[in-house]
Amino acid sequence: MASNPLEDIFGANVRGIVYAAFALVGLVIGSLQAAYTSLPDTEVPTFVTVALAVYAYLGIALGFTAASNVKNKRGES
User: Fold this and answer.
1) What is the mean pLDDT of the chain?
2) What whole-number distance in Å separates Cα of residue 27 and Cα of residue 22?
3) Domain boundaries, the chain
4) 54/70 Cα distance (integer angstroms)
5) Quick one: pLDDT at residue 52?
6) Which of 31, 38, 62, 75 has the maximum number of C-beta atoms within 10 A of its C-beta?
7) Nearest to 59 by CA among 21, 31, 32, 7
8) What are the CA-CA distances from residue 70 to residues 12, 34, 76 (Å)?
């Protein structure tokens, strides 16, 4: 069994796709937030604010998953 249980469920390719998709979603949400904020007399829609908050919260789990897949210099997990 792998040291990371997710390796048994999702391979490195799948995790890479998830990380890339997560980054693209962040780019879209962040761009919407920046665009609405830069427009005068325009409020940021609630769905953008909520999406950004949820995205940040999910980033914690994704970051821990990514960190658990980093090996040190001796090749240990």
Assistant:
1) 83
2) 9
3) 18-67
4) 25
5) 94
6) 62
7) 21
8) 12, 32, 9
